[in-house]
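Retro notes (design track)

What went well: tokenization of the new backbones is finally stable.
What didn't: we kept losing track of which sequence belonged to which structure.
Fix going forward: every design gets posted as structure first, then sequence, in one message. First example under the new rule, 137 residues:
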């Protein structure tokens, strides 16, 4: 799951994230993280909307969560990030049921983290991109 050792406190936190009911329902799993970057996958065949394409809500959740995890790799144990602003720009609709988010932190200050993410479908095509501004506690 992680590019970190099993003694890393971040591993335990990721295990907690994996057990959050909403993330479990969406099929979101954090795959890799470290040094201001994170990758997450989402696999779910029941969340596509009435037209057979996925709604932007689950995709924004996937991108936002991966960016929050990327920020957590830089701020240290015992701190957290609270999203202040999230945005997602879709490039095209997709009927895919498997997605990948790659996130990177661009700026980190004492109380503000800013990052970006890109979303890919199961064919590796980029389907959207977005960003997150979060308050650091």
């Amino acid at each position: 799951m992680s590019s970190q050792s099993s003694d890393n406190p971040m591993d335990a936190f990721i295990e907690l994230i994996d057990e959050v009911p909403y993330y479990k329902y969406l099929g979101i799993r954090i795959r890799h993280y470290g040094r201001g970057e994170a990758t997450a996958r989402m696999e779910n065949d029941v969340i596509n909307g009435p037209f057979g394409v996925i709604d932007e809500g689950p995709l924004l959740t996937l991108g936002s969560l991966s960016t929050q995890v990327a920020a957590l790799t830089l701020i240290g144990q015992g701190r957290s990030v609270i999203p202040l602003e999230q945005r997602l720009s879709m490039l095209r609709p997709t009927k895919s049921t498997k997605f990948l988010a790659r996130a990177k932190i661009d700026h980190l200050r004492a109380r503000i983290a800013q990052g970006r993410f890109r979303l890919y479908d199961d064919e590796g095509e980029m389907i959207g991109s977005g960003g997150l501004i979060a308050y650091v506690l």
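Added context from the reviewer: The helical segments are 9-18, 21-26, 56-75.
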